[in-house]
Amino acid sequence: xxxxxxxxxxxxxxxxxxxxxxxxxxxxxxxxxxxxxxxxxxxxxxxxxxxxxxxxxxxxxxxxxxxxxxxxxxxxxxxxxxxxxxxxxxxxxxxxxxxxxxxxxxxxxxxxxxxxxxxxxxxxxxxxxxxxxxxxxxxxxxxxxxxxxxxxxxxxxxxxxxxxxxxxxxxxxxxxxxxxxxxxxxxxxxxxxxxxxxxxxxxxxxxxxxxxxxxxxxxxxxxxxxxxxxxxxxxxxxxxxxxxxxxxxxxxxxxxxxxxxxxxxxxxxxxxxxxxxxxxxxxxxxxxxxxxxxxxxxxxxxxxxxxxxxxxxxxxxxxxxxxxxxxxxxxxxxx
Length: 335
Known about the structure:
Blueprint: H1 2-19, H2 34-37, E1 43-50, E2 53-60, E3 68-72, H3 83-91, E4 95-99, H4 117-131, E5 140-145, H5 147-154, E6 164-168, H6 174-186, H7 189-205, H8 213-219, E7 224-229, E8 254-259, H9 274-293, H10 300-308, H11 312-315, H12 320-332
Parallel strand pairs: 3-4, 3-5, 5-6, 6-7, 7-8
Antiparallel strand pairs: 1-2, 2-4
């Protein structure tokens, strides 16, 4: 029995660590990057600590004083991955603070550690905001997607003063989404591995491993907008998603939005325009052809040429109705 437990632990640990590697800023991107917008918005780079790591933060729109929108990114990305959203909020008069989580892009960390790390890093980001004289008195809005969608709701278990929260495609609890993902790859073995994964997360994160979105939402009377795609293949709408737990949410200031349109019912396309999604799908098909043509080893010059020809303004185009709904939700909390 002891031998089985040890073997199971190392198998689960190995799978966990492979699932949460370090995510450096990619050499190429199909979307707009910081260098593309330096003439359109002021960006101030800052640093702050999260545990033993130093994280990179970015402040946009230093002259805007309506409030502060803090953006929490998804797993595998960084602040730059949500640059379109940052630019949108600045245009609406908000100041924006975004950051790269542990093990992501310009931040320190040998890996991204695991699912609870996003709320740990958001807590550190908000502590930085509270210590910054230029930011600390601004009303705070939280906007998070996926990994960040969990973070912006689970953070309500803490005592930060938050005006409003928009959670897009978030999960309720680390253990729930871990089991959901494990079932897809391991079948029934996932139920055997589940207690081992739970124990490993507790070892890594302590009490933070038990933080849930529902408990955070119910603990506060903060207005929360929960958005999820009906056909999300990453975080199941009827499974680990926060929206699937709405019958347990007692906070009266919670609103729900289900994205069910054909082009906006997935996970990462909820905030993209129809034109952007159509174009992205076309270009992804072209890249797949290159991938097959070069037998999975596309030469760097061919890859560079492919990305150079992309219309990054189009790939980064947001759905105006979607973003306006979030903006109006934030503005209402200021009344």
